[in-house]
Structure formats: structure tokens, C-alpha cells
Amino acid sequence: MPAAIGRSTGTPQIVGIYCPNYCVEDHVADRQVAVEDIAHSSETAHTGIKSFVSGRLALELYATIKSDPASDDPRLREAHIVLDDASDDAHLTVDEAEETVGQLLGLAADLQRLIRTARLHNQHTAEVAA
Fold first, then answer.
1. 34-69 burial string, b = 16+ CB within 10 Å, else e?
2. Is the dihedral of CA 87, 47, 44, 99 positive or negative?
């Protein structure tokens, strides 16, 4: 895969790099100063949750595969999952990401229980008012 290397003020040098199959980065358009500055990212999965009060997104969560082959941290060199809520990044190993999926599934089950409770309460309140 070609990559552009060099300072933005000069003509870039085009070099060949290994690029994982998940990477969607354009390493020519996204010029880096040095080869060790090149990182890889996948497409981003996203969910956004609107508030009926404001009509705007109140919560957002993004998930991406990333790797930084030249990092001093071996966990960052490996393909890992980054969860981003637009304020801070949570870098997770694939095992940690699997644990997080379990937690999110548990949250989804709890949310379904809360929905049922709220729906039953609203139905009861409407019946009493009628």
C-alpha cells in the first residue's frame, strides 16, 4: 500500500507499507512526517440517541478498529477496539471488548425491563384517569 511521507512544506516521498485489510485510511492523502507515524483505522460503527426534550443527540458512541504499528505499547500495536463517546477514547483489547459487549447486552436487558415497567405504569395511569 502506498503512503506519503514527509513534511507538508516539501514534496512527499511515496513508500510501500503493509496495511491491514480492515484499514480504510488513505495513507497518501493523509501524509505523515515519518513512517512510524502511520496508524491504521477501520470504518467506524456509530449509534446516537436523541432526547425527546431537546430533539438533539444526547449520547453518541463510536467503535473503530485501530492499530499503531510503531507504538511503544504492544497493546496499541495490535488491532484493538476503540470506543469513543466524543470526549475520551477507551482503548480495549479484543478480550476487553468482548467483556464490554457482555456488559452492553446486560444494559440492553435492563433497559428492556425498565421499558416494560414504564409502559405498564403509563397504561395503569391512563386507566385510572379514564
1. eeeebbbbbeeeeeeeeeeeeeeeeeeeebbbbbbe
2. positive
d(CA 130, CA 126): 6
Q: Is the dihedral of CA 72, 80, 18, 86 positive or negative?
A: negative
Q: Where are the domains of the chain?
A: 2-92, 94-130
pLDDT in tens, 33-63: 999 999 999 999 999 999 999 999 999 999 9
pTM of the model as a whole: 0.86
